[in-house]
Amino acid sequence: MESRYASRIFEALSSEVRLDVFRLLVKHAPDGLVAGDIARLLDLPATNLSFHLKALVQSGLVHGEREGRFLRYRASIPLMLDIIAYLTAQCCSGRPECCRAFREESGVDARFLPPVAAPSSDRKA
Known about the structure:
By secondary structure, the chain is mainly alpha-helical. It contains 6 helices and 3 strands; from the N terminus they run H-H-E-H-H-E-E-H-H. It has a 3-stranded antiparallel beta sheet.
């Protein structure tokens, strides 16, 4: 992933409303939600939601699919995982023992984190 693309994604998530919408769609993956349900669950006016959904769709984080007269919105889980991998790819300059300590400190369930390389036994001191 290029830095320019990553920064577009972070810009899209820089709004509290858009972050709430994206997290709600992640919660409802893979089925997604129609705009009316998103507006109701987040207590947002439809016009306000439309503005934020447009920004999320343009970033690629969300996709809309027509269902009759409604649009069903879904979070792009693969893109979310790509951005997490982008952020963590060079964590601790290849020192996995540091990453393990930070992961334990964070309290995030290891199932939700990218794998950390096992310590190399042939590493020179």
